[in-house]
Design goal:
heterodimer; A: 527 residues; mainly alpha; 31 helices; B: 418 residues; alpha/beta; 7-stranded mixed β-sheet; 4-stranded parallel β-sheet; binds flavin-adenine dinucleotide
Chain lengths: 527, 418
C-alpha cells in the first residue's frame, strides 16, 4: 500500500471511530430531563442564516467574524475543489487540470484568504484570549496554517523542480530530440521559473522554438505558472542560480498530504470537531438566543460537543470576578463545560469534581453565556440540569448545605464566629454604613425582585426579602442574613439595584453575602 | 460623538415631559436620570388644588386658583406659564400616556375628589381611568364592595370604610390573592394579573361577596401594561363596575408610568440612559458636555441645550448637608433660608409649611436658572419641575402639573434659542 492510500485509510478510520465514540460514548441521561420539554418551534431558516452568515460570531466581534469568514471562504473551496478534485472538480468541469486557469490563480487566492483568516484568529487569541487558551486551541490554528503553508511551498517547489519537468517531458513528449529538449527547457526556465542545474541558451531563435514546442505540447495542460501568483513569488524569491534539491518537492508533498490526513484524523477529537458540531448545533437551535430548558438529551449531547473553546463565554461571564477571588477555573463556562463533559463520562473526581460543584453553584444562571455563545450552545440548560444532576448525586455544594437549615439556625451557629470580609481588598459592602446610608426601607427592591415574585410565600420560601436583608445589615446583624434563602436564590439580575431610589447596591451586597457564606462553609470545622 | 439638541437631566415627571415635548417638536433628545418622584407617585396628576396653603383653601377650579396664585405669589413658577399652555401640555402628556396604554381622565377645568388608600379624599386634576369608578361610586354614595388582600400591606378596606362614615353603602371584604401567599407586593400581583386564569380565580373568590354592590373597588394591582383591559375583563366577570384604589407608595402607579415612558420615548427617537445620573458637566458658550453614570459604564454626552429636571431632595437635584443646600449638577445658586434654624418651623404640621420646602432655583421668565450674578447661567439651560424655587408642590397639590407645565415652557423657550 502506498503512502496516500495508507494515510487516507488510517485517517478515515480514526475519524469514524472517534466520531462514533463521541456520539455514543456518553450516558447523557445523567442530566435530568423534565417531563415537559420546550416545544417552541425553532426556525430552520434562522439556523441556516446563523451558519452561513456566522451571525452569532459577528456579535462577538468583527475581528473574529472576519477571521472565521476568510478562513471558511478560503478553506472550504480548497477542500472540495482542490483536495477532492478527483471526485468533485474533474467530473464537474470537463478539461479540468489543476495547472490550468482559473484553478491555479483561484487556489492561490483561496489559500491566501484562509491564511489571512488564520492570522486574524491567531492575533485575536493572542490579544484577548491568551489567558483561557490551552494547547489544543493553538494546535488547531497551527495545523491548519501548516497545511496551507506546506501547500504553497509544495507548489513552488514543483514549479522550480527540473525533475518534474523531465518526468512530464518523458510522459508527454517522449520523442523530443536533444535540441528540442533544450529549447523547451530554455522556454520553461525563462517563462515558468524552472531551475535547471545547467546553463541554458538564451538565443532568441531557440527561445522561439521552445515557445512553439510549449504551445504545441504543454500549453494544453499548463497555464503560465505566474498565474499561481503566491507560489511563483515564493519560488522566485530564491536567489538567482540557486537550485533546489530534487527531493524537495516529494518531501513537501508528503508533508502537505500527511498534515491534511492528520487534520482529518483529529477531526472528531476535542476542539477539532467544532467545524462540524457547531453548525449542527446552530441548526438544531434554529436561531434561538434564549434557553430552551429542558432540552432533549440528543440536543444536549450535541451542545456538549459544539464548544469551540472560543472563550467568549468566559470573557462575558457575570461571575468572572469570583473566579479571580476563589481561583476555581470551573467558575468560567468554557472550563466548566469541559469538566461537566468529563463528569458525564465518569472520569472526574476528587478536587476537580469539587471545583465543578462549586463552580456550578457560583453560577447565577444569568443567561449571558447562552446569549453570547457563537456556537449557539444552550449553556443555561446545561447549567440548570447539571446543577440538579450533581445535587441528585449528593453533590449539592454549599447551596445544598445552606438549604438544609433555616436562616435562624444558621444565625445561631454563625453568630459565634468572626465573619471576615470578602475579597483580598477586605472591605465588604455589607460592613459599611455608607452602603445603607440612603435606605428608607421603601420596599422597591423587594417589589421589583423576580425571585420574590415567583415564590408563593416569600417568608417561607426565602426567609427574608431584599429590603429586610438591607435592614438587618444596617443593624449589624450580618450573621442573621448569611443563611437566608433569599441570598442563595438571588439571580443577580440587578433589578433591585437598578431601581433603588437611594443608590443602595442591593444586588452587590446579596452577592457578597453569598461569597462570604460560601467561604465560611468551606472553612467550616477548620480553625 | 453625536451632538444632541437637548439634554434632559432627570427622568421624573418633569424630565419625561421635557423629553416628550422636545421630541415631538422635532428636536434630537438625550435623557439621563434615575429613580425619582414618579416611581413613588400615586398616579394622580395634580394641577393646583390648595392656595393659600396657610389657609388650606381647596379650589374646585384649578384655573381660578391659578389666577389667585399668580396674583399672590408672583415668583411662583406657575406665574411664568400661561393657562392655555398648561392645558395644552397636560393634554399632550396624557395623550402620549394613552397611546402607550395608560388611560387618564378628569373633568375639564375642575378638580375631582379621588379616594385614597387611607380612606381620605384628595383633590386632583387628572386620574387613571382605572380609578374613575371610585369617583363615581363615592359621589353617588352607591352600594360598593371594597376588597383587600391577606398579605398586602398599606391598604385596609375596613379602615377606608371607617374613615368614610358618610358612605353607608360601603361594605368590605378581605380575600386571599390567588396563587400567592405570605407578604404580597403590588408589582408581582400586577404582573400575575396578565394571566386571564388569575382574573377568573379572583372573580370567583369575590363573586359570592357581591350582594347588592354596584361597584367593586380593589387595591391597584390590575396589570402593568394593559390595566384597562384587565379592569374591563373583571367587570365582565363580576357583572359590576370595577375600580382601583392606589396603594401606599411604592405603588404600581409609578412602574406603570415609567413603563409607558420606557416604551414610548425611544419610539419617538429619544436616546434614554436609564438609571444613570449626570456625574460631571462642562459648559462652554456653545456646548454642554456631560458624563452620565460612573465607572466602566459611564457615557459622554454632548448637547447644545439642556433642561435641568433633577427634582429636589428626593430626586437628588438638590443636596443638603447640615448647613446649606446645593444644586447637584452645575452647582447653581440655590434660593434657601438664610440660616439653618429657618429651614423648618417649630410645628411639623404647621399649615404654612416649611421654608426649606420653597427652596430651589431662581429663574428668569423663560425658566432659565440664574447664576451667581443674577443673570441667566447659560442662554440655553432651562429648569423645570420640583427643583424650581418658590413652590411647595406637596402642600399646594400641584406636583405633576407643575412639572409638566414648566417642562413645556422650558422646551418651548429652548427650541426658540437653538
Ligand atoms: C410619594 C410621592 C407621591 C406623589 N404623589 C403625587 C400625586 O399624587 N400627584 C402629583 O401630581 N404628584 C405627586 N408626586 C410628585 C411628583 O411625583 C414629582 O415629585 C413632582 O412632579 C416633581 O417631578 P420632577 O420630575 O421635577 O422631580 P423628580 O420626580 O424628583 O425627579 C427627579 C429626577 O431627576 C433625576 N436626577 C437627579 N439628579 C440627577 C443627575 N445628577 N443626573 C441625572 N438625573 C438626575 C432623578 O433620578 C429623577 O429621575 C408625588 C411624589 C412623591 C414622592
Amino acid at each position: 500500500m502506498d503512502f496516500f492510500s495508507a494515510g487516507l485509510g488510517l485517517a478515515c478510520l480514526s475519524f469514524v471511530l472517534g466520531f462514533a465514540w463521541r456520539v455514543h460514548g456518553r450516558p447523557g441521561s445523567r442530566l435530568p430531563a423534565a417531563s415537559e420539554q420546550d416545544r417552541r418551534k425553532s426556525g430552520l431558516a434562522a439556523g441556516l442564516v446563523d451558519i452561513i452568515l456566522l451571525r452569532r460570531t459577528l456579535r462577538t466581534g468583527k475581528l473574529r467574524w472576519a477571521g472565521h469568514t476568510l478562513l471558511i471562504l478560503g478553506f472550504l473551496p480548497l477542500l472540495f475543489l482542490h483536495a477532492m478534485d478527483g471526485i468533485v472538480t474533474r467530473p464537474l468541469f470537463s478539461g479540468y487540470e489543476p495547472t490550468l486557469e482559473p484553478w491555479q490563480s483561484a487556489r492561490n487566492a483561496l489559500g491566501l484568504a484562509a491564511l489571512a483568516g488564520l492570522g486574524l484568529l491567531v492575533w485575536h487569541r493572542g490579544r484577548r484570549l491568551r489567558a483561557f487558551s490551552r494547547v489544543q486551541d493553538w494546535a488547531l490554528l497551527g495545523l491548519l496554517a501548516a497545511v496551507l503553508l506546506t501547500g504553497f511551498v509544495l507548489e513552488a517547489a514543483k514549479m522550480a523542480s527540473p525533475a518534474d519537468f523531465e518526468r512530464m517531458v518523458a510522459d508527454f513528449f517522449p520523442e523530443a530530440d536533444g535540441d528540442e529538449f533544450i529549447a523547451l527547457q530554455a522556454h520553461w526556465a525563462r517563462e515558468n521559473g524552472v531551475r535547471f542545474e545547467r546553463f541554458l541558451p538564451t538565443a532568441p531563435e531557440i527561445l522561439e522554438q521552445g515557445r512553439e514546442l510549449h504551445e504545441d505540447r504543454c500549453a494544453g495542460c499548463h497555464a503560465p505558472t505566474a498565474t499561481a501568483f503566491a507560489s511563483r513569488t515564493l519560488a522566485d524569491a530564491l536567489p538567482a542560480g540557486a537550485v533546489l534539491p530534487r527531493t524537495m518537492a516529494p518531501i513537501f508533498w508528503h508533508l502537505h498530504v500527511g498534515l491534511a490526513f492528520l487534520v482529518l484524523a483529529l477531526l472528531p477529537w476535542g476542539k477539532f470537531l467544532h467545524p462540524l458540531a457547531s453548525p449542527a448545533n446552530l441548526l438544531v437551535r434554529g436561531g434561538r438566543w434564549d434557553s430552551g430548558f429542558p432540552a432533549a438529551p440528543p440536543a444536549r449531547n450535541l451542545a456538549l460537543e459544539a464548544c469551540t473553546r472560543c472563550g467568549q463565554c468566559s470573557l462575558h461571564c457575570s461571575v468572572a470576578p469570583s473566579r479571580r477571588v476563589l481561583g476555581n477555573v470551573d467558575i468560567l463556562p468554557m472550563d466548566k463545560l469541559a469538566d461537566l463533559r468529563s463528569w458525564l463520562d465518569r472520569s472526574l473526581d476528587g478536587a476537580r469534581l469539587a471545583d465543578l460543584v462549586e463552580g456550578s453553584h457560583v453560577c447565577t444562571e444569568c443567561l449571558r453565556c447562552t446569549q453570547v455563545c457563537p456556537a449557539g450552545i444552550d449553556l443555561q440548560d446545561l447549567w440548570i440540569s447539571s446543577k440538579a444532576a450533581l445535587s441528585e448525586a449528593g453533590r449539592a455544594g454549599v447551596d445544598g448545605e445552606i438549604r438544609k437549615r433555616t436562616a435562624g439556625e444558621w444565625a445561631h451557629e454563625l453568630a459565634s464566629r468572626r465573619l471576615g470580609k470578602v475579597g483580598a481588598s477586605g472591605s465588604g459592602l455589607a460592613d459599611h454604613a455608607e452602603s445603607f446610608w440612603g435606605c428608607v426601607q421603601c420596599t422597591t427592591c423587594t417589589g421589583v425582585c423576580p425571585v420574590v415574585a415567583v415564590s408563593t410565600d416569600p417568608q417561607r420560601d426565602l426567609d427574608l426579602t431584599p429590603q429586610q436583608i438591607m435592614n438587618y445589615l444596617r443593624m449589624g446583624l450580618k450573621a442573621q442574613t448569611l443563611g437566608a434563602r433569599m441570598v442563595w436564590s438571588c439571580t443577580t439580575c440587578y433589578k433591585c439595584q437598578e431601581h433603588c431610589p437611594q443608590g443602595v447596591p442591593v444586588a452587590d451586597i446579596l452577592y457578597e453575602l453569598r461569597q462570604l457564606g460560601a467561604r465560611t462553609l468551606r472553612h467550616r470545622g477548620k480553625p | 460623538m453625536k451632538t444632541y439638541d437637548v439634554m434632559v437631566i432627570g427622568s421624573g415627571f418633569a424630565g419625561m415631559a421635557a423629553s416628550l415635548f422636545a421630541a415631538k417638536r422635532g428636536l434630537s433628545v438625550v435623557q439621563a436620570g434615575g429613580t425619582g418622584g414618579i416611581d413613588f407617585s400615586t398616579g394622580f396628576i395634580d394641577l393646583l388644588a390648595v392656595h393659600p396653603v396657610a389657609e388650606q383653601r381647596v379650589w374646585e377650579d384649578p384655573f381660578a386658583a391659578l389666577v389667585a396664585l399668580r396674583r399672590d405669589l408672583p415668583l411662583h413658577p406657575y406665574a411664568h406659564v400661561a393657562d392655555d399652555e398648561i392645558a395644552a401640555a397636560l393634554e399632550e402628556f396624557t395623550g402620549f400616556l394613552e397611546e402607550n396604554g395608560l388611560c387618564y381622565t378628569g373633568r375639564p377645568g375642575r378638580n375631582t375628589l379621588a379616594l385614597t388608600s387611607a380612606g381620605t379624599v384628595k383633590p386632583t386634576y387628572l386620574l387613571p381611568c382605572s380609578a374613575w369608578g371610585g369617583v363615581e361610586a363615592l359621589e353617588a354614595k352607591a352600594p360598593t364592595l371594597l376588597v383587600d388582600f391577606h398579605g398586602l400591606k398599606g391598604i385596609s378596606a375596613r379602615q377606608i370604610a371607617e374613615v368614610r362614615a358618610d358612605w353607608p353603602g360601603l361594605r368590605t371584604a378581605r380575600v386571599r390573592f390567588p396563587g400567592m401567599g405570605g407578604e404580597l407586593y403590588p408589582e408581582h400581583m400586577a404582573w400575575s394579573m396578565a394571566d386571564q386564569a388569575r382574573r377568573i380565580e379572583l372573580a370567583e373568590a369575590v363573586r359570592p361577596l357581591l350582594g347588592d354592590a354596584r361597584f367593586v373597588g380593589f387595591p391597584a394591582i390590575f396589570g402593568m401594561t394593559d390595566t384597562m383591559a384587565v379592569v374591563r375583563h373583571m367587570e365582565e366577570l363580576l357583572g359590576r363596575r370595577v375600580f382601583e384604589i392606589p396603594t401606599l407608595p411604592p405603588s404600581i402607579a409609578g412602574p406603570r408610568l415609567r413603563a409607558a415612558f420606557d416604551r414610548g420615548l425611544p419610539a419617538l427617537g429619544v436616546r434614554t440612559y436609564t438609571q444613570k445620573l449626570v456625574s460631571a458637566a462642562e459648559v462652554s458658550g456653545e456646548m454642554f458636555h456631560f458624563t452620565a453614570g460612573s465607572g466602566s459604564t459611564a457615557v459622554r454626552i454632548a448637547a447644545r441645550g439642556a433642561v435641568l429636571a433633577s427634582g429636589r431632595f428626593f430626586g437628588k437635584g438638590l443636596k443638603a448637608d447640615r448647613h446649606a443646600v446645593r444644586e447637584a449638577v452645575f452647582d447653581l445658586p440655590v434660593r434657601q433660608p438664610e440660616k439653618r434654624e429657618d429651614w423648618h418651623r417649630a410645628e411639623f404640621f404647621d399649615p404654612r409649611g416649611h421654608e426649606i420646602n420653597q427652596s430651589g432655583l431662581e429663574t428668569d421668565a423663560a425658566l432659565r436658572p440664574l447664576g451667581a450674578d443674577g443673570r441667566p447661567f447659560h442662554p440655553r439651560l432651562h429648569a423645570a419641575g420640583a427643583i424650581l424655587a418658590h413652590q411647595d408642590w406637596m402642600r399646594m397639590k400641584c406636583g405633576a402639573g407643575l412639572a409638566i407645565a414648566t417642562a413645556c415652557k422650558a422646551v418651548r423657550e429652548l427650541s426658540q434659542n437653538l
